[in-house]
Amino acid sequence: MQRVSAVALVILGLWFLVALLSLQGIAHAEVVRWLGQPFNGVMMLLLCTTLVWHSKLGVQVVIEDYVHGPVVKVVSLLLNKFVHVFLLAVAIYSVFSIGLRNSL
Amino acid sequence: MPDTGRPLSPHLSVYRWPITMTLSILHRGSGVALSVGLVVLAAWLAAAASGAVVYEEFAGFMQSLFGRILLAGWSFAFFFHLLNGVRHIVWDFGLGFEKSQANASAWLVVVLTIVLTLAYWLML
C-alpha cells in the first residue's frame, strides 16, 4: 500500500508544487482565496489524506525496525497511528473551515 | 539490543560506502524528515483557518531565516524522496537491477534532486 499511495503522491505532490508557484505570495488573504476554490480544497484534502497514509506506513516500518522493547514498541505504534489521524483531522477541519467560510 | 558482552565485528568504520547504500538510508531519513514536515503542513492549514492574526505569526516564523532553512531542507527531502521513490517503483517492475543500472540511477537521482530543488526555489 506504500506503492499505491506513492504513485498517488507523485501526482498530488506535483500538483501542490505547481500550485504553490501559482500563488501570489503566501499572505493570509491569498491562501484563503486559493483554498476556498473547490478544486484546490478537494486536491488539498486528497493530498493530505494520501500523505498521512503514506507517512504513517513509513514511520511504522521505522518503528518496527528500531524499537524492540515489547511495551515501548506497542505504545510507539499506537502513538504513530493516533498522531497521524490527529494530523489528518486538523487538515480536513481546516480545509472545510476555509472552504465553507468562503461560500457562506 | 541486550548487551551479551560478545565482540561485534566492525561495520560502519570499515565498510565501503556504495552509493546505493547511501541512497537507501537517505530514502528512510528523508521520509522521516518529511513526516515531521507533514506536521508543519497541517499547522499551516490550521493557521490559515484560524484567522489573519494567528496566520501572521505562523507565516512570520516560516519566513524567518530558520524557517526558510527548514523549508529548503524539506523541499530537498521531498524531491529526493520522490525521485528515489520512482526508482523503487521501477525496481518493483523488475527493471534496473543490474549493479551498473542501480548505480547509474542512483547518481541520476542525486543530480536531479539538486537541480530540481535549486530550480524550484529560483522559480518561487
Describe what you observe in this structure.
The complex is a heterodimer of chains A (104) and B (124). In chain A, helix 3 packs antiparallel against helix 4. Chain A is built from four helices and no strands. Chain A is elongated. By secondary structure, chain A is mostly helical. Chain B is mainly α and 124 residues long. In chain B, helix 1 packs antiparallel against helix 2, helix 1 packs across helix 3 and helix 3 runs antiparallel to helix 4. The longest helix of chain B is centred in the first third of the chain and has 31 residues. Chain B starts with 18 loop residues before the first helix and ends with a helix. The mean pLDDT of chain B is 93. At the A-B interface, helix 1, helix 2, helix 3 and helix 4 of A face helix 1, helix 2 and helix 3 of B.
Condensed summary:
The complex is a heterodimer of chains A (104) and B (124). Chain A is an all-alpha fold and 104 residues long.
SSE map:
The complex is a heterodimer of chains A (104) and B (124).
Chain A lengths: L1 H21 L5 H9 L1 H29 L3 H34 L1
Chain B lengths: L18 H31 L2 H12 L1 H28 L6 H25 L1
Helix pairs in contact in B: 1-2, 1-3, 3-4
